UniProtKB/TrEMBL annotation:
GO terms for molecular function: ATP binding; ATP hydrolysis activity; ATPase-coupled transmembrane transporter activity. This is ABC transporter C member 13. The lineage of its organism: Eukaryota, Fungi, Fungi incertae sedis, Zoopagomycota, Kickxellomycotina. Residues 156-185 have a biased composition (Polar residues). It comes from Coemansia pectinata. GO terms for cellular component: membrane. SUPFAM superfamilies: P-loop containing nucleoside triphosphate hydrolases. The gene is ABCC13_1. It comes from the Eukaryota. CDD domains: ABCC_MRP_domain2. PROSITE patterns: ABC_TRANSPORTER_2. Residues 152-193 are annotated as: Disordered. PANTHER family: ATP-BINDING CASSETTE SUB-FAMILY C.
């Protein structure tokens, strides 16, 4: 909700100060409060737009823990946080030593290191289910000392100050974009919340209250849009990138600092960084450390309260219009957005690519087989020969062509052979709606679509922001292998909590409180035995 952090956690329940701070501490949220202008009374935007992915996940966890239910379903609650915070949450919430220690807990996970700690493991594989009852591994509590137990200094608790913040907390364009395309928080369910469509609202609210609340949000959204600061110009006629820009992908960041608002702490503080063309960089750090903020400034999503410069291949990026600049970089965000409509329109809304390119990308990302699985000729797309795949593309092109294009295809001898009688456009070609082909997409499948889009566009600089956090380890490995072949000559910046994802990087950056705390090859950083080594020790990778 567009309300304070506290209201988002209480969610209509009474404020029990002692238990509330216990929950905040157990969710490792106390540290985060230091950089927010009004501690736990800071307004977090609709869908948690003002906070990081890991902070959103921990807020949802705090809400459900605060509700004191008897039975908990925690849907992959730890995938968005780093190893140290993960341990903290296991100790303080999920395991027998934690706040939920005496409750029945169902936890979905793709990490063996977590299932090892459970009494029963239900494995779901291709629709079949197996159950194993086990003695949980003895867990040695990890003393991470990350969070003070006391509540932080009382800062801006007066409603007056609250008003000040909400009035000055104007939205950035990037946030509005995120907000209109984002999916909102997946809260874990508890028996104190309505689990239906109204789960967003406190239980005691009537439908009228809900309707009024919705209208309130609607009006506020318009107000926010009206108050939106003008972005940098879309196109600057005197400085336009050539079609091939950037030629190499070398990045230089000098003395760069950024705040999300005048009342906020620094999200990025005095960043100095030189990345060579083609280098593969892993970016890690505690949740809220500034990793996504670094990606945002690279895409020029933040315009105010910034200082310093960023250049790519020697060109200061602030000199370009944002409309010219942003599409030159590739990005797979924490949550890829898809919209209703055909697969074709989702991959290529501007109709810039031909069908072969789209199919090739879908095949590489392992999505094509879903689309073809019902078709008799292509029951198992993985088993199709290259020739058959090519035939499928030609058939698709033929099916979609008007008479003139078919004529051109005849002249170019690109007519589908009689043997490829399958009309793959119907019912499972690119014009099929995403929903019809995939039903409800998993977050992992959405990410694969994001990858598909980037593969088609072949950018020299690609940023992956927790792109594979929600896919299982095996898929993550194949995605990483795909990235290393597809983007071998590109500069790739990979933000990840899961260390397997970035262990093969040329260099690793460890971020901490908006600064670059460590930088070096994985080997150098391990030998240094600093923050990176600590993250490795606390991660599944370390085990
Ligand atoms: N739009 C925003 N407005 C205000 N503060 C923000 C906004 N986005 C992020 N922040 C704050 O900036 C800090 C850095 O956030 P960022 O998203 O860069 O962290 P992160 O390292 O990517 O975290 P995570 O691993 O949880 O995704 C956090 O304290 C966060 O609360």
């Amino acid at each position: 909700m567009n309300d304070t952090l506290r209201a988002n956690i209480l969610f209509g329940r009474e404020y029990d100060e002692g238990y509330y701070w216990k929950v905040l501490n157990a969710c490792a949220l106390v540290d985060d409060l230091e950089v927010w202008p009004n501690s736990d009374l800071t307004i977090i935007g609709e869908n948690g737009i003002n906070i990081s992915g890991g902070q959103r996940a921990r807020l949802a966890l705090a809400r459900t823990v605060y509700s004191q239910a008897d039975i908990y379903f925690l849907d992959d609650p730890l995938s968005a946080v780093d190893g140290i915070v993960k341990r903290h949450i296991l100790d303080n919430i999920i395991l027998s030593t934690g706040l939920l220690g005496d409750k029945l807990r169902f936890v979905t996970t793709n990490a063996d290191s977590i299932s090892m700690l459970c009494n029963q493991v239900v494995t779901v594989n291709n629709g079949s289910v197996s159950v194993k009852v086990q003695a949980p591994e003895v867990y040695i509590a990890f003393n991470c000392n990350t969070v003070p137990v006391s509540k932080p200094k009382e800062g801006g608790n007066s409603s007056k100050e609250l008003q000040t913040v909400s009035a000055s907390d104007k939205k950035q364009t990037g946030n509005i974009l995120n907000e209109t395309t984002g999916e909102g928080i997946n809260t874990s369910s508890s028996n104190n919340c309505n689990a239906d469509d109204n789960s967003k609202y406190p239980k005691q609210w009537s439908h009228w209250d809900n309707a009024l609340y919705a209208i309130h949000i609607y009006i506020n959204e318009f107000r926010n849009l009206a108050e939106l600061d003008a972005e940098a110009p879309y196109v600057v006629d005197s400085c336009r990138p050539s079609a091939q820009w950037p030629p190499n992908g070398k990045i230089e960041i000098r003395d760069f600092s950024m705040k999300y608002g005048v009342h906020h702490g620094y999200a990025l503080k005095n960043i100095n960084l030189a990345i060579s063309a083609g280098e593969k960089i892993g970016i890690v750090g505690r949740t809220g450390a500034g990793k996504s903020s670094l990606a945002k400034v690279l895409f020029r999503l933040i315009h105010e309260n910034i200082s310093g410069s960023i250049s790519i291949d020697g060109q200061d990026i602030s000199e370009f219009g944002v409309g010219d600049y942003r599409p030159r970089l590739g990005m797979i965000p924490q949550e890829s957005s898809l919209f209703g409509g055909s697969i074709r329109n989702n991959l290529d809304p501007l109709h810039q690519f031909d069908i072969e390119e789209m199919w090739a990308a879908l095949i590489k990302c392992g999505l094509a087989k879903h689309m073809l699985s019902y078709h008799s000729s292509f029951n198992d797309h993985d088993n199709m020969t290259d020739h058959q795949k090519k035939e499928a593309c030609v058939r698709e092109q033929w099916n979609n062509a008007g008479w003139l294009k078919r004529l051109v295809m005849v002249v170019l001898n690109r007519v589908p052979s009689a043997s490829s009688s399958a009309d793959i456009r119907k019912p499972h070609g690119l014009d099929k709606s995403i929903q019809d082909c995939f039903g409800r997409l998993t977050s992992g499948q959405k990410q694969l679509f994001g990858l598909c889009r980037v593969i088609m566009r072949k950018r020299k600089i690609v940023v992956l922001d927790e792109a594979t956090a929600n896919v299982d380890l095996e898929t993550d490995k194949s995605v990483q292998a795909l990235i290393s072949t597809e983007f071998s000559d590109c500069t790739v910046l990979t933000i990840a909590h899961r260390l397997d994802t970035i262990m093969n990087s040329d260099r690793i950056i460890v971020m901490d409180k908006g600064t670059i705390a460590e930088i070096g090859t994985p080997r150098e950083l391990l030998a240094k035995d600093g923050m990176f080594a600590q993250l490795v020790k606390t991660s599944d990778f370390g085990q």
